[in-house]
Write the structure tokens for this entry.
Amino acid sequence: MSSEPENPSSSTAPPPEESGEKISKKAAKKEAAKLEKLRRRQEKEEEEEASRKTASLSIEEESFSRNYGDVTLNELKSTEDPKAGKWREAVEGNEWTDVRELVEAMAGTEVLIRGRVHTYRHVSSKKGFLIVRQKGCLVQCVVTESKENHVSVNMVKFVKQLNSESFVDVIGYVVLPKDPVTGTTQQVEIQVRKVYCVNSALQQLPLYVEDAARSEADIQAGKPGANQDTRLNFRVIDLRTATNQGIFSIQGWTQIGFIEIHSPKLLAGSSEGGSAVFRLDYKGQPACLAQSPQLHKQMAICADFERVFEVGAVYRAEDSFTHRHLCEFIGLDVEMAIHKHYSEIMDLVGELFPFIFNKINENCQKELEAIRKQYPFQPLKFLPKTLRLTFAEGIQMLKEAGVEADPLGDLNTETERKLGLLVLEKYNTEFYILHRYPSAVRPFYTMPCADDPNYSNSFDVFIRGEEIISGAQRVHDPELLTEQAKRFGIDVETIKMYIDSFRYGAPPHGGFGVGLERVVMLFCGLNNIRKTSLFPRDPLRLAP
Amino acid sequence: MSSEPENPSSSTAPPPEESGEKISKKAAKKEAAKLEKLRRRQEKEEEEEASRKTASLSIEEESFSRNYGDVTLNELKSTEDPKAGKWREAVEGNEWTDVRELVEAMAGTEVLIRGRVHTYRHVSSKKGFLIVRQKGCLVQCVVTESKENHVSVNMVKFVKQLNSESFVDVIGYVVLPKDPVTGTTQQVEIQVRKVYCVNSALQQLPLYVEDAARSEADIQAGKPGANQDTRLNFRVIDLRTATNQGIFSIQGWTQIGFIEIHSPKLLAGSSEGGSAVFRLDYKGQPACLAQSPQLHKQMAICADFERVFEVGAVYRAEDSFTHRHLCEFIGLDVEMAIHKHYSEIMDLVGELFPFIFNKINENCQKELEAIRKQYPFQPLKFLPKTLRLTFAEGIQMLKEAGVEADPLGDLNTETERKLGLLVLEKYNTEFYILHRYPSAVRPFYTMPCADDPNYSNSFDVFIRGEEIISGAQRVHDPELLTEQAKRFGIDVETIKMYIDSFRYGAPPHGGFGVGLERVVMLFCGLNNIRKTSLFPRDPLRLAP
């Protein structure tokens, strides 16, 4: 990016005759252009030479080219189809190994890892060292041109041009390095066989992880650091340092790899562009109370927290006088990086809730008995393996029962309840997932389905015919996100910070949110959410 | 309470001549008065008869009278002095047993329980059945006049006049009833030896637990219920039902008997009367963001949750531009009923934090290493048994080191840090409790010391010379609370709801609050709280 005005006759540019400095600048520019030309020519020659040398491989090259490349957004949208592309073919049936798990004992085995391009050191057109980072752990991946391994010089070139902080999937063999590797956390290397760019970060980042990670001693010794304001402004990059990963792991870590986060409820402007927000004055700035931790939990994912959850207050200023709405409620929000598709999120939901239900039934027998005595209810019927239906299947079930519902619209409360009864009758469960919702009824940041953009990679979960959970894969591609925001009539300028956080390298991800008072209400078959809120807040009640 | 106008000539009362009904009402009133007179006479005769019969016991009665009575507030303020009164003498060396733990196997053993007066059934001047309730569990306590057991008729009378929802300490023997007890959860009885009223509830309550606990079926069968608004208005009573104890136990329960609560952050008016609050419009009502969960966690205790904790956002609109203040931070708040004195709270703090520190040191070695690499720090020095010093001792240590500090004032940041160094030098710990703070520097709801009202049953906790925790015993006596609020210049009308919640029966209690970002900052020896807040909010920063 040049800071020079594009049009020299522009009124903001000083007239050339006024400035002697301008002339030397021009000369410098000329010189720089000459050097750049030279550099390009050398690069071209190098490439041509490599190309000549690999001419004999040209037939193989076509098959070798399947071993590297960019993962298309379409592949990341689709669900199970392995024909989607070369990346999908390469990872199909493979499990991802965490970088921190790469140890000497794995030498000789093939692994698939996903991480960020931390740094790259170019040795020659035939060899390079790619350092991949995942949650603060680093591993050296060696890319070496090899006919035997189906690694072409073009693959080396592909790796060379990856922007740092981009996400890559690397498939390769774990090898023991001859000399101890310095500068990485893992003491093994990966001999790369395949490499795919899952998501590309901007070439120029507003903050570099190395600078944010610099110690005081290094800064005093003259190395570049980053000041606190820059770090906090670009917190989504700053949080990726090993230090910050450590600080926030200490604060909340669970055994299944989720980090508990606490996102701010005080936001500048108005959150998500909604109208039903509580507004307040924050030291002279307009502010509002968060309607959900959506933005911040996604930012935590872009900051390499991988799997996060939050239990915290959610604020809705809606005038809903129903049995199931509150103006302040406790949300459980989950967000997670996904490897292949959004069914990974549904897998979690489908396992987590039956687990919770079983635990309550086991550990809270006396409590349930006490509740049942005053408010009789039947135990919730749920399956060990949670039922999953598509929205279209739901519409079809309703249709067969004589209930018409718009296949591209939303279900109303009554229709949801009716569907709940049909599902109970047919599948004997009061807990199920309905997915592939019409795109039109989901937020702009919802990932559309690969095969039909009228539907989206999203789901709702129902208990006793009432919706309790909404979840989806998110759009992590800034261009598609911008396009969808515009289509939904959102002024993209107001969500610039949100969109920008996906430009610094973002993994495919998704999550869900659930109102905890509502879960307890429906689990216990209670008729009013005020019964499960300690000190409820509704449009008329602000006390005690 | 009569709904008749007290002054019949009042303009709101209809003139007598207009209403024929009035005359019959008058007649009814006359009749009622006659009956009431009769009832009182009978009661008096009964008492006199009892008194006559026990005349021979009059010498013993003086010693028997030590076995019942009201616990003085002074006893509940003081710490270790067993001479404080008959209650203190009776419970000294005794442990409280939970009502839910009373089972057949305990028959013959003496127990001490604390609970609320649920109901009382009077049999005669010599016998009564007191049902005691603790966290939704009920046990029948039999009070029988007995020379052998040192139980006088006056003690039976004392029990008879206890208001329901008052707190009592009962000492007695566990006995197996001849017939199965109906209407209680526990299948054993207690033969009462001693009974003390720890806290008295109002005689007339705005809501009765039995009414709040009524099932739909019972209400339809004609029994009195309570509507939702009444129940939510007097939530502190409503939450005492077994049903509500069940609902909120399901939502969050820990192994050491603490229930996790979520209190509302949206409050009517301005919380705690402070000026540094964020104000907002709540559907036309003035509202503010909670500066602490103080009110609601205390209400949870008055609602029989016994031991609660909350992890949630705390809002401070202060213009503090320091390394350790944020406008929104995560507070860990704890509140608990106490049996004897506030050292029970300090015991918890003194055990909990070393436990947490040890767990972090054990489980987060890699994380601590990563943090230390960028921000070098020494491991925190703390003792297995947390050091406890009085404020006066702290002042004395400072004095000996040549630092003058007001013995009835607060310590400033610099003096706190100095004291931290002196404590480290003398006791080799960077974590300690300083207690018995001057009353003048603590909130109005802090319990004064029994031996000197200039000091209070309060404490602060320090890490590396910086305050991280503030805690205290609270005033649970509404009269003393009113008096102290006035002395602090608080308009008691604005905190009426808060004070009133102690009129419906409240146990002695206390608790503490701690900022979690500050704990992590100081544990890791970091120099700025923005390093341990995910997306910090300070007077100038409201994004990202």
